[in-house]
Amino acid sequence: MKSTELPPYARAMGMEFAGHDNGSPVIAMVWSARAMGRPGFMHGGAIGGVLEMAGFTALEAELERQGIDMRIKPINISTEYLRGGLPETIYARGEVVRAGRRVANVRIEAWQSDRSRPVASCWMNFQLSPKKA
Amino acid sequence: MDSPEDTSTPLDRFVQAAGFNPRDWTAHLNAHGHSGFIGMRYHGHGTDWIELAFDWREELVGDPETGVLASGPIISLLDNATSMSVWTRMGRFCPQVTLDLRIDYTRAAAPRKPIIARAECYQVRRSMAFVRGIAHDGDITDPVAHAAGIFMLVDGQEWVK
Questions:
Q1: Which of A36, A39, A81 lies at the smallest CB-CB distance from B11?
Q2: Tens of pLDDT along B14-48?
Q3: How many A×B Cβ pairs under 8 Å?
Q4: A 33-72 residues inside an 8 A Cβ radius of B
Q5: What residues of chain A lie within 8 A of the CB of B155, using their CB?
Q6: Distance from CA of A6 to the nearest CA of B (A)
Q7: pLDDT tens for residues A96-110?
Q8: Backbone φ, ψ for residue A45 (5° rounding)
Q9: Domain B4-159 in CATH: superfamily?
Q10: CATH superfamily of this structure's domain A8-130
Q11: Three-state SS at A96
């Protein structure tokens, strides 16, 4: 996966790049029935999916910026759900806290119409390893 | 058209039901929306645990080179299964929202294999329920992911719109 393209799951969910903010890509996901959880709200798993995609792409962009070509694997994610996700577009952006040689730590936030009222936030840890030839 | 039965949804019926039947819930409420897109299905349950599953398919892939599933669908499955484990333990439906959910990805899921999540509610308090879960692709002793989370039990009026 390059930092310019999203995987099949993300595309099927309607995620796309929505520009950059302070060096990190912003991922947007339009509302669709595919994202609906309890009636009238976005599914927590769909929100988690957007957060993860923003985490991945933020790390890819940071590694690219540093000229590092590594394989990225998620180790874990811990999500706090702050507000119910509404039936509208959701955005997420990750911030690489540290990218070391073996592990990278990323914090991600998701919001909807009002950026100052986040819907969910999470941290993710990634394992970095050399790419197989 | 003016009789009350005509407007009652499957959700209304589960809210009013005396018990909680995970198989019926999955059949009615996981068939649409995000759970329907992921393709969640009932796999089994006991007094305080429940199993849900979904099948591998191209649309859910995270790495097209290897065919490994994206982790998003695994979060969704664990979210639903852990949520339902609360109602299974309580023996009734109760409106709740996810407060937090932590997932450790212990290994990549094998391509083309179904994913099964086994979730357990291990403690219920007045306003909170504590859950844990495991996702695997056939052997629960060799899991794909581990989950731990907390659900907040909330007022029914705010739960749906």
A1: A39
A2: 777 778 999 998 998 888 999 999 999 999 999 99
A3: 127
A4: 33-46, 48-49, 52-53
A5: none
A6: 8
A7: 999 999 999 999 999
A8: -70, -35
A9: Hotdog Thioesterase (3.10.129.10)
A10: Hotdog Thioesterase (3.10.129.10)
A11: strand
